[in-house]
chitin synthase (Allomyces macrogynus), 738 residues
Amino acid sequence: MDPTVPEPDDSTNGALGVSDATAVLKSSDGDLGEGNRSAMELLKAQPSTNELDSSSIGLVKATAISTGSSPALRANRFQIASTNPINAVANGGTSGGGVQQRKFAAGTRLRKSVKPDDVYLGEKSLERKVWLFIVTVLTGWVPDWLLKLCGVQGKDVMQAWREKFALVMMVILTSIVPISWLEVSNMLLCPQLTITLNLAQVRASSNLVIANGRVLDITKSRTVLGKVLKPYVGQDVSSMIPVYMRLAHPGFGSTTHADTDFSACVANVAAADGWLAKIVSADPAGTLSVMRDGRLVGCQKPGGAPRQTESCFYSDATWRDVSRMTVADLLLDPNIVPRNMSDVSRLSFVTVLTKVYNLTTFVDHAIIYQQDNLARAKCDKVPVTPNMRTNFLAPEFALTLARGIGSDLSTQLTQQSDLEDLRCLDKLFFAGRATPPLYTTICAFGNQILLAITGSVYSIILIKFLVSLMFSFRFKPAQMNADTMCFVPCYTEGQSMRITFESLAACDYDDDRKLLVVVCDGNITGKGNAAPTPQIALELLGWRGYGPIAHVYHAIGKGTEKINMAKVYSGWYKFKEHRVPYGVIAKVGKPDEAKSAKPGNRGKRDSQLILMNFFNKVLNQRPMSPFEYELYYHIKHVVGVDPKLYEYLLMVDADTRVEPDSMNELVAAMVNDQRKIGVCGETMVSNKWASWVTAIQVHEYYINHHLGKAFESIFGSVTCLPGCFSMYRIPSCSAGCR
């Protein structure tokens, strides 16, 4: 008799050790039987804190309490729920059959649940409190009533939802940070200026020209101007489009300008006319002339010799066409801007907010410098006076421009009136843009940061690749002999399960040291299958015999789905020279699910929890459900191995083929480092040429299952073990059983 878990009574067919009248299930007519009915009632109802009648405690009777008194039952439930021997102290008493009673230490917590066993939570650690605070901050904006409205019922379920959602938010936030840095940092450190092209780029093009600081694409022209400019591609055609003609009057006797925007910045119309007359008469090429009707003719031919003329374009249609053709500003060298008065051969430029204005014609005809020897002075040191006959700008603004020749006036021209005058400069004197030296330095620094980040990303990929090569040098470990359970969950698979069963049986591992456990998630017939999945699995394993009785257990689900029933089969699977013990768990559902589409289906997570809860109760001496007790009976008496002796659990999907040496490799890795609680192998696509979808999955599998896992293993922590092929450590008696 096993002292930890009671042996089943043969007369009850291994049910719960109660009388035949209450434990035998009538499977022929679908009756649950009194034993399972009592268990189901206990699972459905929360155990009362009042005294419990022994006839209604089907599950707790598995502890073989002889007297069946209520105080003994409650004490036994608390004793089993305590999983931490430090927090539980023996009171030295026994009840009836000698069940040891324990009391909880002060400060411990018990959570009420729909489960038949109280769950011992223990004290909240500091890490747990910090985590709960983070969860509250991230999900506090979602009220409980909204979760209830969405079907999330119960405080425990809500808290689980909040923690999962918090994890998702943290993943999203941590993904946004590096992406945002890559996208935003360059904008912050090096904001995008107006699109610019330098002279070399324009000359190398086949459709671009330069006109008054703008780069024009002649293919976008909708007038004759595009055709006229075609022979001058790559050149400066500013002379053919005289912007100063915007100051001209639309007719004789008119006091307005052709461009009405100049009315806001022209302070003296007569001075504007005088300055315009100076421009025409002082043309260095000597080609400009004004007809009687006021038209300007004889514009200098681009790149031509003096007195070689070309047509002039300055009508309203021309300005609209120029605006349409403009694709960028001309990028100038910042070194052309600074100058002294001694640089008589250089043009007069000023810079305002990266814009460069050529004020040579304005300074020559509208400003008077009052010093005899200008070669010894800078512009800002020379007394200046506006020429009242030709200075059409506001005097203060004109003086600021005159004193600032060769410098940046961005900080001096900040008033609203200055901004209006600057709009006039944009139309009359704009020459292009110049990138400030500081801006260039900051952009270079930002580019270095981006290059460093890019290099780190590529270095990680390179390191992952190099690390994965370590696993190419395989050293065969010694033969292991630890008891290992092979867990194979299945849903609607068919004959494809044969590959998994055969590969597990053919592993280079002692057949007596491995147990094949197949969990069929529901009595479901998959598409293209001739029989339900449990039946196919049993046929592949070679099971022969009568159908066993279905037993109840607590499942994952809502409402009535929290209760489920399953059958347990066991035997020996023979494949070639191998003879491997197996157990099949078929989740068939309650009788009222028989006509449903998926009877007994509760999901893969429920299949995993079946074994997790089973080992938890076996190793911690907790009361088991009828199903768990039946599973214990099959492993202990049919297979012949005490469940407490299993040390490792290998999880393999039903459509996965396992290499012969893989099981021994994983067990050896666990044995060599007792700190490991889980390991995984490398997964590859076996049918990569079946379709284009499977072909592209090869790359994804290699990145995630080879490079990624190998890189994480260097730090001793693999973030995610794939469910298709992983091994976990089971706390066994070698680690200390209670």
Q: What stands out?
A: Residues 142 and 162 are 9 Å apart (CA to CA).
